[in-house]
């Protein structure tokens, strides 16, 4: 069944016809098509998408990685609940929600220990291989992008464990960013590193995740928040998020400068770049007892050689951090509330708002160092 007017219709099976941006094959970009969205079963929830952020990892899937096609991507999603499955109990119709990449079963030992970011059974939030897929296009099952969220669409079907309820006062575009870049950057500082007031923090890489790490450091009360990048245009905006110092590592020696600013090296270094020489510098600028957190992956050979004797005698640690060690249902409403109180800058993360049909152009503009995030907010 096809529609012309942009409204969604229901098929005989009860599935709903909605517009979605479909990636049909490797490197084939994003094309708006009408797809069928299944009715929610179990604890699935259908949401009307109001904002969906463009994230580099979706573009990576669309252009390089091994991926099933066709696929609907989009994993930074905010919207309104329009239907709930018969077993859903955490959200209700009309709730404003943000979806997150963390797929948590809610019942395993890690989930019960508030470590849902390392859930042992993330697959329980998805449909099994022998069940009908959530989305079909021209009778074919459609793969779901990261987290199974498939947010580049008028409506999405998502397990309730991946949804956090936010205040209705929260605007949609910044809300969509809460589920990925915000919890990754700010969560690394507040959860993984547990930065304390008065400590020194270095953030390597002044992109979206880096700016959210800066916000986290400000919320934690860090005394110095030093941002390092190779592009002045990116460094200039860091002060708007709470940086106290910025360093261009092309024109200065970042290790020497950090030691000069802090006196004894940095208590916490967050590597959002993930290139070997950058990670090495991060380790070299650590204070005794300091921690280096690996957040970004800049290439396939990203990594670091650690000299045991050097880190042992200085009691330092190197830690991998995924999704900011976040707990969606606790952290996303907290960041929304801090934003509404004027204590967290999310507005400057949103560089541009586009329509569902402009995702290809949106990714083009993300190549510009000035653009932090592009968000789809027009789904007509
Ligand atoms: Zn993302
Ligand atoms: Zn679990």
UniProtKB/TrEMBL annotation:
<keyword id="KW-0560">Oxidoreductase</keyword>
<keyword id="KW-0479">Metal-binding</keyword>
<dbReference type="GO" id="GO:0005829">
    <property type="term" value="C:cytosol"/>
</dbReference>
<dbReference type="InterPro" id="IPR013149">
    <property type="entry name" value="ADH-like_C"/>
</dbReference>
<dbReference type="GO" id="GO:0008270">
    <property type="term" value="F:zinc ion binding"/>
</dbReference>
<dbReference type="Pfam" id="PF00107">
    <property type="entry name" value="ADH_zinc_N"/>
</dbReference>
<comment type="similarity">
    <text>Belongs to the zinc-containing alcohol dehydrogenase family.</text>
</comment>
<dbReference type="InterPro" id="IPR013154">
    <property type="entry name" value="ADH-like_N"/>
</dbReference>
<dbReference type="InterPro" id="IPR011032">
    <property type="entry name" value="GroES-like_sf"/>
</dbReference>
<dbReference type="GO" id="GO:0051903">
    <property type="term" value="F:S-(hydroxymethyl)glutathione dehydrogenase [NAD(P)+] activity"/>
</dbReference>
<dbReference type="GO" id="GO:0046294">
    <property type="term" value="P:formaldehyde catabolic process"/>
</dbReference>
<dbReference type="InterPro" id="IPR036291">
    <property type="entry name" value="NAD(P)-bd_dom_sf"/>
</dbReference>
<keyword id="KW-0520">NAD</keyword>
<dbReference type="InterPro" id="IPR002328">
    <property type="entry name" value="ADH_Zn_CS"/>
</dbReference>
<dbReference type="Pfam" id="PF08240">
    <property type="entry name" value="ADH_N"/>
</dbReference>
<keyword id="KW-0862">Zinc</keyword>
<dbReference type="InterPro" id="IPR020843">
    <property type="entry name" value="ER"/>
</dbReference>
<protein>
    <submittedName>
        <fullName>Alcohol dehydrogenase</fullName>
    </submittedName>
</protein>
<feature type="domain" description="Enoyl reductase (ER)">
    <location>
        <begin position="25"/>
        <end position="376"/>
    </location>
</feature>
């Amino acid at each position: 069944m096809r529609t012309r007017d942009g409204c969604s219709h229901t098929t005989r099976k009860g599935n709903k016809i909605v517009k979605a941006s479909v990636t049909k094959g490797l490197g084939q970009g994003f094309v708006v098509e009408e797809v069928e969205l299944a009715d929610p079963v179990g604890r699935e929830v259908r949401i009307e998408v109001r904002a969906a952020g463009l994230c580099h990892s979706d573009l990576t899937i669309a252009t390089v990685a091994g991926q099933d096609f066709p696929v609907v991507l989009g994993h930074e999603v905010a919207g309104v609940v329009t239907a709930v499955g018969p077993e859903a109990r955490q959200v209700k119709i009309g709730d404003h929600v943000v979806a997150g990449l963390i797929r948590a079963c809610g019942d395993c030992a890690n989930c019960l220990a508030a470590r849902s970011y390392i859930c042992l059974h993330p697959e329980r939030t998805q449909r099994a291989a022998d069940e009908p897929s959530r989305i079909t296009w021209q009778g074919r099952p459609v793969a779901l992008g990261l987290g199974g969220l498939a947010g580049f669409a008028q409506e999405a079907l998502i397990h309730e464990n991946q949804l956090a309820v936010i205040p209705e006062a929260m605007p949609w575009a910044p809300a969509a960013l809460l589920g990925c870049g915000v919890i990754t950057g700010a969560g690394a500082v507040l959860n993984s590193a547990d930065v304390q007031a008065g400590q020194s923090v270095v953030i390597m890489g002044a992109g979206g995740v880096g700016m959210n790490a800066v916000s986290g450091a400000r919320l934690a009360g860090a005394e110095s928040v030093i941002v390092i990048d190779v592009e002045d245009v990116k460094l200039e905006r860091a002060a708007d998020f709470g940086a106290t110092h910025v360093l261009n590592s092309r024109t200065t020696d970042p290790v020497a400068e950090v030691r000069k600013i802090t006196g004894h090296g940095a208590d916490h270094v967050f590597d959002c770049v993930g290139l070997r020489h950058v990670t090495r510098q991060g380790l070299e600028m650590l204070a005794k007892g300091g921690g280096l957190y690996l957040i970004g992956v800049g290439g396939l050979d990203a990594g670091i050689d650690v000299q045991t004797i050097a880190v042992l005698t200085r009691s330092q640690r190197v830690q991998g951090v995924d999704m900011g060690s976040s707990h969606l249902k606790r952290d996303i409403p907290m960041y929304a509330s801090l934003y509404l109180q004027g204590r967290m800058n999310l507005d400057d993360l949103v560089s541009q708002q586009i329509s569902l049909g402009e995702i290809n152009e949106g990714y083009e503009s993300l190549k510009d160092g000035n653009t932090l995030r592009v968000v789809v907010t027009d789904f007509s």
